[in-house]
Amino acid sequence: EPTVRTELMEQIPPIAIFLQESRPKFPTAFFEYLMPIVVRYLTDVNNQVRKAGQEALLILLEQDLVAQSDIENKVCPILLDLSAPDSDDEYKVEAVNIICKMASMLSRTTVEHMLLPRFCELCSDGKLFQVRKICAANFGDICNAVGQEATERLLIPKFFELCSDSVWGMRKACAECFMAVSYTTSPEVRRSKLSPLFISLISDTCRWVRQAAFQSLGPFISTFANPSSAGLYIREDGTLSIRPSAQDVNANSCQPSNNITLMSSSANAA
């Protein structure tokens, strides 16, 4: 019964946390019994069960309860199978979504070697625009997960493709995450490649794309500033913040914080 399996998935994270806290008594229970269930339900025939399994997996990863070996040998292979070119459309959309969400929770090596090649393929998926849309909306997070070298070598060419996609929602999503992508690149790439690309988005034929680009103009310009002198930095949640100087902090020690936060990306493109 699907409702029973769904309810079971919702109970997996609290059980896993209990087993982790009681690990001396149950040293292998999670890895032997619970993790195989989570992995199996990622391919369940019922979409509600799969959704519950995906949510449970993300919670487990966020709580750092999944061993690195299980991530590389059990979770990633399943997601790569589900996101393969010949995979069912619904499974593929779900797989790319969870790949993007879990990228920030995994080690850079795991993301770069196991998930990045497939992500680059999905950015060019000509069959499903929904897949490209998810890739575009999460592009900044993937860049942040793999770092500057992989971003400039592998991801920037894909970003150019998405910024010129025939579907305006794709271009709008790229405009919204432009600052996060720019922050991951070198000043030279920012100047020579991303600046002309951003100008093309500001001049886009679709007003929704132009509007999103203008909203990202200030955050994009801020990535050209010297962090040490401007006090700009990116938080772990992907937001751009301004750190007040020591002089300002001392002068306003009794006043509320005057930090300004600019979102690097917004909700998925409509």
Automatic annotation (TrEMBL):
Record-level GO cellular component terms: cytoplasm
GO molecular-function terms, A-Z: protein phosphatase regulator activity
Database matches in InterPro entries: ARM-like (IPR011989), ARM-type_fold (IPR016024), HEAT (IPR000357), HEAT_type_2 (IPR021133), PP2A_Regulatory_Subunit_A (IPR051023)
One Pfam family cited in the UniProt record for this chain: HEAT
HEAT repeat feature ranges: 115-154
Alphabetic keyword roster: Repeat
Keyword Repeat set for record: yes
UniProt protein name: PP4R1 phosphatase
Gene: Ppp4r1_0
